[in-house]
Design brief:
Blueprint: H1 2-11, H2 18-31, E1 36-37, H3 38-44, H4 51-61, E2 67-72, E3 75-80, H5 100-112, E4 115-116, H6 117-124, H7 130-138, E5 142-147, E6 155-159, H8 161-166, H9 178-183, H10 198-204, H11 210-213
């Protein structure tokens, strides 16, 4: 009785026309924030539907359009046509001047690398806050170098390839002199560390994070 009833039960559900299946697939994928797999489509569509075939037809319909049906791994999603991607892009350029503390730290690393934090502080004459180092690392302008084979094995800092590329340098040996740095606006005309009052230097390091790295 069970074997005879099964084909009768299946015959009660007739699959929608392929055109309607395409519309269903289109609606599900369009409304989904994540790519949708064929198995997920089968689970959501009426009994007897063939989402795999519907995807083939639907993909052809979107050929040459501004939006395309593309495969993402084992799933499917609606994506902007590659040649129109530039229309979706909005670029904003914001220039912000590095603070004196960050510039001095960066310059010391560039000209004295590999250099430890203690050596940076000795050259600057003031303590280097953790915020300055962290922000320069986040900017991908300096990175950790090899540890010194000295007591405590302190870590060293060196400039990155991103730093060299930003300034059009092949290596740190091509770094400009002090005059070139000042003419480029990377250094101001204020006296170097140790010449100004100690209170001024302390004030530069009083704050941490973004406010310390950049000047408004």
């Amino acid at each position: 009785m069970t074997d005879a009833a099964e084909p009768i039960e299946k015959s009660l559900f007739e699959a929608p026309p392929m055109g309607e299946q395409e519309r269903m697939v289109e609606a599900i994928i369009f409304a989904s924030t994540e790519p949708v797999s064929v198995s997920e489509l089968e689970a959501r569509m009426p009994h007897g539907c063939d989402p795999a075939e519907a995807l083939v037809h639907l993909r052809k319909r979107y050929e040459g359009r501004g939006v395309q049906l593309v495969r993402v791994g084992d799933a499917w999603a609606m994506r902007t046509a590659p040649d129109l991607g530039h229309l979706m892009r909005k670029e904003t350029v914001e220039q912000r001047k590095l603070s004196r503390a960050a510039i001095e730290t960066l310059a010391i690393v560039a000209y004295h690398q590999p250099v430890t934090r203690a050596e940076i502080e000795e050259i600057r004459g003031v303590a280097v806050s953790r915020g300055t180092i962290d922000q320069l690392i986040e900017l991908d302008w300096i990175r950790f170098g090899r540890r010194r084979m000295t007591p405590g094995r302190p870590v060293t800092f060196v400039v990155t390839e991103h730093f060299l590329d930003h300034f059009g340098l092949e290596s740190a040996r091509d770094l400009p002199g002090i005059k070139e740095l000042r003419s480029a606006g990377l250094l101001d005309n204020r006296p170097p560390p140790g010449v100004t009052k100690a209170g001024d230097d302390d004030e530069d390091e009083a704050t941490t994070g973004q406010s310390e790295l950049f000047e408004d």
